[in-house]
Amino acid sequence: AQPAKLLVLPGDGIGPEVMHEVGRVITWLEKNRGLAFEITEDLVGGASLAEYGEPIRNEVIEKARAADAVLFGSVGDPRWGHVGFEKRPEVAILKLRQELELFANLRPAKVFDALVDASTLKPDVVRGLDIMIVRETVGGIYFGDPRGIETLPDGTRRGINTEVYTTPEIERVARVAFEMARKRSNHVCSVEKCNVMESGLLWKEVVTDLHAREFSDVKLTHMLADNCAMQLVRNPRQFDVIVTGNLFGDILSDLASMLTGSLGMLPSATLGAVRADGKCAALYEPIHGSAPDIAGQGIANPIAQILSFAMLLRYSLNLQDEAKMVEEAVSRVLESGLRTADIMSEGMARVGTSVMGEAIVREL
Amino acid sequence: AQPAKLLVLPGDGIGPEVMHEVGRVITWLEKNRGLAFEITEDLVGGASLAEYGEPIRNEVIEKARAADAVLFGSVGDPRWGHVGFEKRPEVAILKLRQELELFANLRPAKVFDALVDASTLKPDVVRGLDIMIVRETVGGIYFGDPRGIETLPDGTRRGINTEVYTTPEIERVARVAFEMARKRSNHVCSVEKCNVMESGLLWKEVVTDLHAREFSDVKLTHMLADNCAMQLVRNPRQFDVIVTGNLFGDILSDLASMLTGSLGMLPSATLGAVRADGKCAALYEPIHGSAPDIAGQGIANPIAQILSFAMLLRYSLNLQDEAKMVEEAVSRVLESGLRTADIMSEGMARVGTSVMGEAIVREL
Ligand SMILES: CC(C)[C@H](C(=O)O)[C@@H](O)C(=O)O
Ligand SMILES: CC(C)[C@H](C(=O)O)[C@@H](O)C(=O)O
User: Fold this and answer.
1) Of A181, A212, A362, B30, which alpha carbon lies 20 to 30 A from B336's?
2) Of B85, B120, B166, which is closest to A158 when you measure between CB atoms?
3) pLDDT tens digits, residue range A179-226?
4) Which of B234, B260, B286 is the last residue of a domain?
5) How far is the CA of B226 from the centre of ligand 1 (A)?
6) How far apart are CA B140 and CA A71, in angstroms?
7) Among A215, A232, A260, where does a domain finish?
8) A252 and A301, same structural domain?
9) Dihedral sign, CA of A43, A46, A52, A54?
10) What class of enzyme is it (chains A, B) (predicted)?
11) Coil, helix or strand at residue A319
C-alpha cells in the first residue's frame, strides 16, 4: 500500500509539544501495525510570521492540498497581537478552511467516565454526555462581503460584516450531519435565529427540505441559537448531533466543549468535499488553543492532539481498528489514574506531556 | 406629584397571568406608599395578531412613547407559527426596541441563595453569582441592510443579513456598561469576535478609546465571544459587567441566565436615550418567554415579572426604596420556603401563581 501522506503543522504555543507525542503513536503504528506514513512538517501561525512574515505561505496550502490529511496543532501568539487583521496568526486556519473548502467542522463533546468530576456541571447532568456539533466553516459571516471598516463623511466609522448562506452550502453541511446521526443516535437538531435573520430562515427551510427528501428516517428538530445555549446548560444530554452555521457553531461548540470540563481532551475534524481522486480534504486539530501561558514547560495535555490523530485514522484513512486502539489506550491511561495538570484531581498521579504520551504508547 | 404613566403589555401565554400579580404589588404601593400610577393596557404579539391582524399597532408604539415606562410580559404563540416573517409575534418587541431606540438591554444573572441548588452547575461555582450583561439591542445583524432571501439566475437561493455597528452606537451602549460597573464591582468585559469580524474590531477599538477618555477608573478587559461562552461555564464569577452586541448578547445573556437555573426569577430592562423631557424611554420584561405549554394553568412563576417591575421603580421612577422593598419581599418569600413548580425542590411548599403573588404582597 501507498504510505499515507500527512502534512503536520504544529503551529504556536503548546502545539509543537503535544504534536511531538503524536509522533510516538505514529512510530508505534508503523512498527506494530505495518502502516506507512509519509510526513511533511511546516510552519503556520506566529511561527510562520516569525520566519516568513505571513501566517501561512501558499506553498503550505499547496502541500495541504496534496496531502491525504492535515494534522494541525494550534495557532495564536500574543507577540503577534499588533500585526493587523490580514496577518494575524488565525489567518492560517481560516485560509486552510477556505482554500481546501473544509466546510464541515466536527466537534465532539464527550465526557469520559473517569473525568466526570472535571465538569463545573453536576455529574448527574453530564455523565455519559456525547454530542457531535457539525459546524459550517467556509461560509456565513466569517467570509461574507461586503466587510470592513469605513469612515463616513461626518467622521463616524462603520464596521460591517455580511452573513451569507446559499442553498448548496447549507445542504452539504446538513448532509454530513444527517449521515453522522445515522451512525449515532439518529437525531439532528438544526440551530439558527430564524426569528430575526432571513439567512436563518433559509437555513431552516433547506435543512427541512433535505430531511424530507433524503433523511426522513432521522429525527429532525429545530432550535433558536439562544435557546440552544440555554438547553446545553440545562440538559445537554437531549442532543445527539447539532448542525449550525459558522458563527453560532463557533460559540456553541466551545460552550459544549466546556461542559466536559476538560478541553485538553477534545479533538476535532474539519472535512471538505469529495475530490476527483475519491478522497476528501480533511484537517484534524485539538479544540484547545496554543495556551502560550504554559508553552515550553512540558505540562500540556497531549490527549486532544492524539485523539485528533485518531479521528484522522478513522475519517481520512478508514483505519477504524487503529482509531479505536488509540482511543481505548487513552481511556485506559485515564483509568489508571494518570493526569496532566489541566485534568488533575485528588488522588490521581500528576504527570507531564511526555510521560502521558509514553503511557498511551505503552497501553497500545 | 404627577402619577407615573405606565403602559402595560401582557402579551401572550403566561404573560397575562404573571402580569396580574404585578397589579397586586401596584395596588399595595398606591395604598401604603402614597404612589400614584396611571396605567394603560394594550395587546401585543399573538394577542394583537388575533384582534388586529398585526403583532403591534402604531397606536401602541405611540402610547409607549408617551409613557414613563413600558411593562412588557412576553410574546410568542405557536398558533402564529405560519404568519410569515413580517407578522410574527416577535416583531412586537423588535419594533418597540427600534422605534423607541431602546438600545441597552440590561440582563442581570443573579443566583438567589435560597435557589443555589436549582442550577445545573455545582453550587460552589455559582453561589453568589451576580453578572450584569449589557446587550446592544437596536443595531447589529438584527436590523442591518441588505437582508432577505434572493433567488439567483441558476435557481440557487441566498439568505443575507448584515452586521453593522457605528462608533456612536458602540459608544452609547459602552457608556451604559461603564456607568453600571461603577455602581457594582467596577469591571467591564467587552465581548466581540475581532479575530474574524471587522465590526468586532471596531467595537473593541471604540470601547477601548471611550475607556481611556472617560472611564479609566473602571477595569476593562476584552474577550472573544466563543471564549466568553466557555468562561461563563468554567468560572462565571470572574465577570461583573459584560458589554456586547445584539447577537452575541442574545446568546450569552440567555446562557448566563441558565447558569442560575431559575429563569422564572430573572427580570430585564431595556433603556433608551435621554429624551427632551430629561427622562429616557424604557421597557421592562421578564427574560422567560410566553411558555404556551403551561399558560392558563395558574402555575407560572410571577417573580420575574414582579422583579421587572422593581427594576422599573428603580431605573425609570428613581424609587430606590420601593424597588428594594419589592426585591426584599421576594427574597423573604423564597426563604420562607414557597416555590412555584419551576423552582420547586424537596421539602419546599409548592404554590401557584396567585398564592406566590399574594405572599409577596404580604411580605411588603
Ligand atoms: C481561530 C479562530 C479564527 C477560530 C474561529 O473563530 O473559527 C476558532 O475560534 C475556532 O473555533 O476554530
Ligand atoms: C423575541 C426575540 C426576537 C428576542 C431576540 O432574539 O432578541 C429574544 O430572544 C430576546 O432575547 O429578547
Assistant:
1) B30
2) B166
3) 999 999 999 999 999 999 999 999 999 999 999 999 999 999 999 999
4) B260
5) 8
6) 36
7) A260
8) no
9) positive
10) oxidoreductase
11) coil
